Amino acid sequence: MKAKENFSEIINVKKSANQVKDMYKRIGKILSACLLLLVVTGRITWAAVFTYTDETAYLNDLAAFGYSSFVESFEDDAVWGGLRSTITSKITAPSVTSQGIVWTSNHPATNDITTGNGAAVTGEWGIYDPLHGVATGTPQECDVDNPPEKCLYHDGVSATWAVDGSSLYGIGGWFSGTSGANIEFVLNQNRIGLDKLGSPGQQPQFFGVIDTLGFASYMVREIDGKVGDALFIFGDDFTFAASALAPCTPTGLADNNCDGVDDDCSGTADDGYVPVADCGVGLCLTNNTPSSCVNGVETLCKPGDPVPENSDPVCTDALDNDCDGLVDAGDPDCSEGPVPPCTPTGLADNNCDGVDDDCSGTADDGYVPVADCGVGLCLTNNTPSSCVNGVETLCKPGDPVPENSDPVCTDALDNDCDGLVDAGDSGCSGERKFSWIMYLPAILGTGLNKGK
Q1: At 18, is the secondary structure helix, strand, or coil?
Q2: Residue 203 to residue 201: CA distance in whole angstroms
Q3: Rounded to the nearest 5°, which phi and psi values hold at 10?
Q4: pLDDT category, 263, cuts 50, 70, 90?
Q5: Residue 14: its H or E element
Q6: What's the pTM?
């Protein structure tokens, strides 16, 4: 009996210990919740600043706070269409206002902003300062470990919230640029150090900040680049959090045109978009890929692939397999009689010789286009090899562009296809010299994702 009582006491002690643990857990959650809120009582203000390198965590916390959020991806041609820069031309402006945000360079007195393909993470366009900062120091003054402020370019862009009566509470975006570029955010002149961009070959990196006290101005800038060692940055796909969204004015248009504009002020752009699914004929219609609309960019409907209609079973399946509008015996390809039996040659059907080596029904269907010819821009813009009716057209490098003046000397591209970029190319002059190997593939336009 006594042993039973002792056992009961042990159980009660364990229960009490678990209750204490649960109490501390609840206290911890309460304290965490306090840090996630802005509480103003009399003259005491509680606030917290959180930094992020993971977009999902950033977006989840925005939702937990209950903030309104909106995305700027620079795809809206109605707003940004006049600032589309290419390797051959730079079209810039001192500032652009979009969704209540006024965008400028970090050096608005002398520099403009623009959008370009090389800066894009998703879609077609990203934002940057084409002059990549301002520095007035001499190479002699700046060739030290801790250079004076006048030696630093501080490349990047700034954004100011222009909606009265509200504040921004979060900013996050995807950044690419020179390997080792050291990025910081400045919120209302408060500096928040983040991290450096990784080595070439890595995806663009996400950086974000939530400030529960709120802020009206934001700057992203590179803090290590100096005269003689410039470090560039580019941005795309920014997500802002605000206490209230910028006022929306209906355009009067149906919100179905995939332009990235919320025409009906529903809170979602292009929510009336209806995919097109009627392209192609016969089996190519049945197996087509409907159009889609993502971030204001439309991908057109694509017909399926035809199948040769010249033998059984495709000549007796009641389908228009070759997508010419004719079916089975009504198709001259079938009425001409059966095709002689095919004997596999034992070879891989990838040599573009017009022979159906594996008897798949299609000659050379294992052919893989060659797409690695050329260097720099000539690689990016090359024309891959092709195989048509057993005749191969070789991969053709793109055409080089002379690299001897702006804007091609400041676009972070190897335009003349000699393996050298901008100031690292003898054809370009100036003091901002840097190695072409420092650049991420995103700057070269190799299609970075959107890995978000």
Answers
A1: helix
A2: 7
A3: -60, -45
A4: confident
A5: helix 2-35
A6: 0.49
